[in-house]
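Researcher: Quick test of sequence recovery. Tokens follow.
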């Protein structure tokens, strides 16, 4: 028996997020190879993460307004084709100076796809299933961490980072085809008026949630951005070992996101955000105690369980609070994710360049503690009479 059309479309959106997530994370996964190939330091190569995140941060809300009237099937398929072209172009760049701007143009695609896929998913199902649909589509990012990131790191480590980028281009074309064939025609979320954007931007609750997302991202990416160089330097990890560690992290991420997708409508998005952020914080707290790769693997488990699940819960939290404003609030939340990545990668790069990598986990933990405090305050304010 064939699957109902909405379910097939949700699977296509999930696959699209898998490709988008793999492409975003390919730089952290191949940072050692990019650094060596282009003759720059790891801290300099890490600025690819910062610059890309800055583009995605600014682009998500601006592009949400620009593409508001587009049919979502056309928009999302063309976005994935743009991603394919960009990764091919990146793979052909001869120097870091040439790669940086091309990478920035390439990541216009994630700025569009992830928030618009989330808003689209909410329109494919009844209102009572929106939270589950949004978190289901976001499972693609967890799958990217399970399969895409470690395989990309393995390809990059043994065949070069250019081959890893080429593989992402091929997957992007396949995903664009899937989206085109499964999404129904005519899905056009109502364009947000200036008044609606004003409601989003002036809402203390919605903007507070977006701020939580930014703080979560910053706290993680101080260390996450430079995971490869740190494991190579501190533990002597080679490309295969690094790929295995990425895979462990990704499996935990998939499990965490599946659990959140299953229970979020019952437990509540706010509580899920708290639980997942606490799990990430636990790993950063224990990080300095991981003296061997085996201990580090154990320390990574809570972080993996919480990492992508926290983003899913935040997306569902916004959609559930104000469904009519979801195109804007989810776009701003994606902007918050990428703001956090940019800030975290810049902070981590500065610490790495100044031989202060031992402080990375503590700086990240401090940012996550602020995120937890703000998230709890938001929930308490909503419950107040």
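Model:
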């Amino acid at each position: 028996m064939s699957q109902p059309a909405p379910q097939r479309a949700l699977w296509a959106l999930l696959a699209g997020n898998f490709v988008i997530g793999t492409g975003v994370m390919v730089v952290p996964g191949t940072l050692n190879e990019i650094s060596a190939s282009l003759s720059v330091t790891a801290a300099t190569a890490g600025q690819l993460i910062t610059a890309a995140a800055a583009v995605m941060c600014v682009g998500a809300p601006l592009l949400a307004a620009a593409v508001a009237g587009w049919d979502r099937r056309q928009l999302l398929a063309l976005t994935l084709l743009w991603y394919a072209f960009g990764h091919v172009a990146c793979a052909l760049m001869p120097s870091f100076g040439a790669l940086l701007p091309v990478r920035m143009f390439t990541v216009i695609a994630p700025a569009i796809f992830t928030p618009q896929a989330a808003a689209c998913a909410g329109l494919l199902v009844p209102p009572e299933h929106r939270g589950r649909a949004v978190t289901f589509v976001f499972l693609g990012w967890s799958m990217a961490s399970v399969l895409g990131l470690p395989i990309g790191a393995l390809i990059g480590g043994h065949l070069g980072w250019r081959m890893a980028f080429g593989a992402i281009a091929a997957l992007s074309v396949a995903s664009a085809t899937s989206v085109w064939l499964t999404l129904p025609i005519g899905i056009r979320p109502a364009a947000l008026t200036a008044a609606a954007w004003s409601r989003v931007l002036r809402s203390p609750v919605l903007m507070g949630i977006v701020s939580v997302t930014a703080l979560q991202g910053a706290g993680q990416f101080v260390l996450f951005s430079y995971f490869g160089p740190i494991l190579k330097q501190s533990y002597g990890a080679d490309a295969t070992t690094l790929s295995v560690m990425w895979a462990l992290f990704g499996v935990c991420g998939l499990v965490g996101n599946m659990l959140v997708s299953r229970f979020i409508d019952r437990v509540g998005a706010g509580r899920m955000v708290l639980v997942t952020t606490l799990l990430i914080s636990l790993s950063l707290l224990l990080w300095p105690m991981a003296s061997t790769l085996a201990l580090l693997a154990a320390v990574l488990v809570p972080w993996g369980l919480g990492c992508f699940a926290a983003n899913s819960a935040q997306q569902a939290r916004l959609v559930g609070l104000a469904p009519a404003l979801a195109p804007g609030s989810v776009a701003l939340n994606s902007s918050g994710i990428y703001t956090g990545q940019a800030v975290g990668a810049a902070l981590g790069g500065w610490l790495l360049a100044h031989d202060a990598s031992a402080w990375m986990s503590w700086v990240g933990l401090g940012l996550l503690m602020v995120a937890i405090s703000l998230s709890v305050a938001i929930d308490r304010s909503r419950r107040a009479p």
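The chain is about 85% helix and 0% strand.
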